Amino acid sequence: MRILLSSGEVSGDAIGGRLAREFRGILPSVDLAGCVGASMESAGVRALAGIGSFSHAGWVSVLSRLPWVAWSAWSYFRRVDRFAPDLVVAVDAPGLHGPLLGRCSRKGIRCAWVAPPQLWAWKNRSVPLLRGMDVYPAHRFEIPSLERAGANAFWWGFPGERPCSAPPVDRPLLALFPGSRSAWRDRHARWFVSLARQTGLPLEPVLVHPAPRDGGMELGVRCLTPGEALPAAALALCLPGTSTLQTAMWGVPTVVAARPGRIDLMIAGTRLASGSKVLPNRILGDGIFPEFYAEQATSERVVAALRESHRDRREIASRLVGLPQALGEAAAPRRIAEHVLGRNAA
Question: Of 204, 235, 281, 300, whose Cβ has the fewest other Cβ atoms within 10 Å?
């Protein structure tokens, strides 16, 4: 059996690696290929494309690279055609996987989407492709919006890594997550470092990236992987996204801030749904992590929130205690793989 297992960014690659191991455990002879990163490659998924070609965020970033992105997608789709999958399992990355899944569906290939589009974050967003498709959201609260779109939504739990721990109080680092995608990182990294220094807290600021370069230094501070930074982090400053869930799982008090570009804000501003954009806040139904966006994200407000979060870190950690249970089964990747293969056999 040939399965196209496709990711398009770092967080999706981590989930894809776990799914690949489960698929191979259930069906040892399976042939896995797709758009991969380091995690999926280490799990034995053959690379038809790399996530670096598609890891762009924001309209301006995508449009400025549109010829390269379009060429990369066309080349990837051609390789997919030659691979001739029996089943397609996409992970996240709607910009890449919307066209890919539509193309494969029209050819009669069965498709499933793990971590599908986050419809909950948008007003009246319609995705006709989701009608009748099996989807596996990362979080329970996503199910109603997906079902309204006509998808068959199945959820057992968050399929990513879950290194939950009881946080010690005295940790030495302030972990900065300005994103792994180049456009967002370029916009936020220097500002995040400046904010960390303005706090005056007795914490060492470190930038976090899945694959640090330049000798482990960036903008004059150490650059660490999440696995290196989070066990030693007393506080974090993040963009909205999966990094906020990572910090919450480690019990790290976190402030969320983002300054989108003007064009991105003009395009997306009126389309965003109301309510928190921060995953732990949504999952737990509690505004645990303060969040600031666009004109609200002033340096003064963010610095004040960082100081307050550090002061109240014990109380914040206590409010995160229920997160592991709210994330559902730890065996979610196994359950997803079994269900996808069972539905395909049926």
Answer: 300
